[in-house]
Amino acid sequence: MNYLSLPKIELHLHLDCCLSYKLVQQLNPSVSYEEWKQSFVAPPKCTDLADYISRAVKGVELMQTREQLKLVTLDLFEQLQADNVVYAEIRFAPLQHVFEGLKPKEVVQAVVDAVEEGMRHTNVIARVLLCTLRHYSEAQSMETVHLVEQFKGSHVVGFDIAADEAGFPIDNHIKAFRFANDNGIFCTAHAGEAKGAESVWETLQHFRPLRIGHGVRSVEDEKLLEYLKQSGIHLEVCPSSNIQVNVFDRIENHPADRIYRSGVSMSISTDARTITPVTLADEYALLEKTFNWQKEHFLKCNLEAVSHSFVDDATRQLLREKILAGYKS
Questions:
Q1: Which of the residue ranges 54-58, 84-88, 286-290 would you say has the lowest mean pLDDT?
Q2: Which of 164, 213, 240, 311 is deepest in the core (most CB within 10 A)?
Q3: SS3 (DSSP) at 150
Q4: Sign of dihedral through CA atoms 118, 181, 145, 229?
Q5: CA angle in degrees (0–180, nearest 5) for 65-274-127
Q6: CB 154 within 8 A of CB 127
Q7: CA–CA separation, 210 and 160 (whole Å)
Q8: Among 146, 147, 176, 183, which residue's Cα sits nearest to residue 161?
């Protein structure tokens, strides 16, 4: 099946993990292809999530000015258009990009402006999620969620928590998620990746997100799967990334198919198009090869992604029509 031709929705995508070699050469011509592969791309098997995340360090270093942030964002739009992604939610942690003088608000504005430009020059619709990170203080988490509030009405539409789930507790972030929920800010949260089902339960209880980033280890608890299904919580599933991070040893043991068959709302994303060097078309082909997924599986996942996207009703209807039209042809 030609998966490249199918329109796709991508809800789980990290801006700082998608720097192509072409772009890195533009930002720093001294970086060789071998160095890019070594520093920006994770090996097929990392020791753990922290090892995987370390591959973002060099990318973040090249995202410290307005121009750099613009170029990184526009490069990602090119990648998305080539993969026939019609809608993407792009996430990043603004406080990671303030080390050469930009203020957090200026960082967000630079990305928002670049998203606007990217949408003008491609067929991709995109929105932005701002991330706090597990190792951040309560003050940093609050600063991040306040940025989401300040940018309401722009392309910034939600709040997330990312980084090392296994290494840091949730305590510093409860207040920020309470603020988000009290102020009508859409929330997603990484959980059930580096830790098990108990992490998903904890996240649901204290953060009350509408979606879970990854959430694949929810399969360790049948009651949790049933709760996710009954509550309409959407899982943003990134199969190849999970294998690289060593959440599962091989793709045949990945629970994507089990989650799908359980009736829990889910969709497929890449997570990181450079650190995990895949496209969504690649992920679809992998799921077909491994679990015999067919067009109807991907149609269902994309429609679920549309239903759980952080957009207004008019945009949601437009995206639904694009997906349905693309899958009919």
A1: 54-58
A2: 213
A3: helix
A4: negative
A5: 60
A6: no
A7: 11
A8: 176
User: For all residues of the chain together, what is the average pLDDT?
Assistant: 98
Q: Can you list the alpha helix ranges (DSSP code H) found in the chain?
A: 21-27, 33-40, 49-53, 57-61, 66-82, 104-121, 138-150, 174-182, 197-207, 222-231, 239-244, 256-262, 280-291, 295-307, 313-328
Please report the pLDDT score of residue 329 as a whole number.
Answer: 72
Nearest to 85 by CA among 282, 286, 264, 257: 282
The rounded distance, in Å, linking the Cα atoms of 196 and 33 is: 36
- The amino acid at residue 147 is L
How many C-beta neighbours within 10 Å does residue 320 have? 16
Hey, what are 220's tokens? 């360790």
Confidence of residue 50 (pLDDT cuts 50, 70, 90): confident
In this predicted structure, the answer to whether residue 279 has a pLDDT above a threshold of 90 is yes
In the predicted model, is pLDDT for residue 155 greater than 80?
A: yes
How far is Cα 160 from Cα 298, in angstroms, rounded to an integer?
Answer: 25
Nearest to 202 by CA among 230, 180, 173: 173
How far lies 323's CA from each of 26, 269, 303, in Å? 34, 16, 7
Q: CB of 221 within 8 A of CB of 197?
A: yes
Domain ranges in the chain are 3-328
With 0-12 / 13-18 / 19 or more C-beta atoms within 10 angstroms meaning exposed / middle / buried, residue 103 is: exposed
Q: Assess contact for 60 and 16: CB atoms under 8 A.
A: yes
What is the Cα–Cα distance from 258 to 248, expressed in whole angstroms? 14
Model pLDDT, residue 267: 99
For domain 3-328, give the fold.
TIM Barrel (3.20.20)
Both tokens of 177, joined, read: 């998620």
The angle that helices 138-150 and 174-182 make with each other, rounded to 10 degrees, is: 20
